[in-house]
Write a structure and sequence with these properties.
Blueprint lengths: L4 H18 L3 E4 L4 E4 L3 E4 L6 E3 L2 H17 L5 H33 L2 E4 L5 H29 L1
Antiparallel strand pairs: 1-2, 1-5, 2-3, 3-4
Length: 151
């Protein structure tokens, strides 16, 4: 199971998405404070109690990480693995759409400027590894079907 390249790709998807949940994605800069844009809320960086809560982005990342982890154990059912990968691709694209909507709403609400952090790119890294895993799984399926045709 672990010797297959798609398993390593799926593990990289899980690692990048779990890391993205715990890292800040960006910062809002206002004249009064600096806010940190994270998975489940926009919090002040100074440690004040004020925050803007939302949960959709963190839940999308958690569901994608969980489905990529579950897909690893379906190594005997390659088409099911492909379905998990397609679900993750669609969900991660939806993540970036929701991210942009939440970004513009929060930016207007705080009347602030925005700067990106490294955590913003981690779901994109997960999306790329998910695409690579899907291609590797489909290549394995083609090899198995070709072998069955020869037999």
């Amino acid at each position: 199971m672990i010797q297959r390249i798609q398993t390593l790709y799926l593990l990289m998807v899980v690692a990048s998405l779990v890391t993205a949940i715990f890292m800040p994605w960006g910062s809002f800069f206002t004249s009064e404070a600096v806010y940190s844009y994270e998975a489940f809320a926009v919090k002040t960086a100074v440690g004040q109690a004020e925050s803007i809560g939302f949960w959709a982005l963190g839940v999308i990342l958690a569901v994608c990480a969980l489905s990529a982890f579950v897909a690893i154990f379906f190594f005997k059912k390659r088409l099911t693995q492909v379905r998990f990968c397609i679900f993750n691709l669609i969900a991660l694209i939806g993540f970036y759409i929701v991210f942009l909507i939440a970004l513009f709403v929060t930016k207007a609400q705080l009347d602030a400027t925005f700067g990106l952090n490294f955590g913003f790119a981690l779901p994109l890294v997960g999306l790329i590894f998910d695409f690579l895993a899907m291609n590797a799984i489909l290549n394995d399926e083609k090899k198995v079907r070709a072998y069955q045709r020869i037999r």
